[in-house]
Amino acid sequence: MKHYTNGAAFIDQEIVPISEAKISILDWGFLHSDATYDVVHVWRGRFFRLNDHMERFYSSMEKLNMAIPYTRKELHSILSSCVKASGLREAYVEMITTRGLPEPGSRDPRTCTNQFFAFAIPFIWITKPQNGLHLIVSERQRIPAESVDPVIKNYHWLDFVMGQFEAFERGGETAVLIDSQGNIKEGPGFNIFSIKDSVLKTPAKGVLQGITRKTVLELATENGFTVIHGNLKPEEARSSDEAFATSTAGGIIPITKIDDQIINGGIIGPITKTLHDSYWKLHDEPKYSAAINY
Ligand SMILES: *Cc1c(COP(=O)(O)O)cnc(C)c1O
Q1: One domain, residues 260 and 165
Q2: Which ligand 1 atom minimizes the distance to the CA of 186?
Q3: Are residues 165 and 24 in the same domain?
Q4: Which of 17, 96, 144, 199 could make an SS bond with 37 (beta carbons 3.0 to 4.6 A apart)?
Q5: Is the C-beta atom of 186 inside 6 A of ligand 1?
Q6: Cα separation of 194 and 138, whole Å?
């Protein structure tokens, strides 16, 4: 079988090469960011925590009054088909539901037919492994949770994207945004942890409940570390012993510089390393991963 090695997509009930997957420019997913999505990764031919990602996806859709005509089993099978068509052993696999198009002449969201898409493309890293991340704490506020619930995975990313431009201008690689009280929240597609005196800290509220974050919380407990779910101030983050970002796009990503402050002498810290190695080990365990039948 010939593989679509640049990626494969599911659109209009068909699997096509990623370059052929096109949507209507009138879809509200495009016009209004009226969409929700989830991303699961495939590592060495296995989905990691697919059930968790699917649960979050269905829950996000429900909160947005969206629905798809597929059961979890069917969704699993569609995602597998995308990966199989790509032949990729390491992949970034996305599922998206958009509001779709309203009836002609209408602006009533209830008249929209929701659209579902999925695709598998080569694995994406927030930053390349080994290199610690240089993080910038932006002064920009993340859209408040009262306006757009961050627990729903969403594409309201203008704040994140402008934060990224700010990060590049200041010599960094990516940025985290703050809330109205000046507490660090999250960045474009990642949660954040800081470590001080072997105690981990991560923002409790106003962030996406990341599956990688959840995995770190479980691993930290197993390894006997205390985790505080609380407010993380920029100055506190800058004075941490270690820090890392968590995302399906790269796993546990060490942070070795925050603003102008070098963290742990610019090298990956021991707790981060322990968690990182345990995280990747889980990828072979049947309890956490599901093999793809290529
Ligand atoms: C996807 C995402 C994350 C990370 O979640 P994972 O489930 O670990 O991939 C964190 N923050 C935001 C805003 C995200 O979109």
Answers
A1: yes
A2: 11
A3: no
A4: 96
A5: yes
A6: 17
Check pocket membership of 248 for ligand 1, CB cut-off 6 A.
Answer: yes
Mean pLDDT, rounded, of the chain: 97
Q: Given this model, what pLDDT does residue 129 score?
A: 63
pLDDT in tens, 140-161: 999 999 999 999 999 999 999 9
Q: Are residues 278 and 141 in the same domain?
A: yes
Whether ligand 1 lies within 6 angstroms of the CB of 191 is answered as: yes
Q: Which residue has the tokens 């920029």?
A: 234
162 and 77, same domain (yes or no):
no
Q: pLDDT exceeding 90 applies to what percent of the chain?
A: 97
Q: How far is the CA of 111 from the centre of ligand 1 (A)?
A: 30
Residues 211-234: tens digit of each pLDDT: 999 999 999 999 999 999 999 999
For the entire predicted model, the pTM comes to: 0.97
Domain assignment of residue 118, yes or no: yes
Give the closest residue (by CA) to ligand 1 atom 15. Answer: 189
Same domain, 166 and 88: no
Q: What is the DSSP letter of 224?
A: T
The per-residue pLDDT for 125 is 86
Max distance between CA atoms of the chain, in angstroms, equals 60
| CB-ligand 1 contact for 36 (6 Å cutoff) | no
The strand pairing partners of 291, in sequence order, are 46
294 in a domain, yes or no?
Answer: no
Cβ of 206 closer than 6 Å to ligand 1, yes or no, is no
Asked whether residue 36 falls in the same domain as residue 146, the answer is: no
Q: Give residue 127's pLDDT.
A: 74
Ranges under pLDDT 50 in the chain: none
Beta strand 14-17 with 35-43: parallel, antiparallel or unpaired?
unpaired
**In ligand 1, which atom is closest to the CA atom of 160?**
13
List the domain range (segments joined by +) for residue 67.
8-122
| d(C-alpha 249, C-alpha 91), whole Å | 10
The residues facing 176 across adjacent strands are: 137
213 lines ligand 1 (CB under 6 A): yes
56 ligand 1 Cβ < 6 A: no
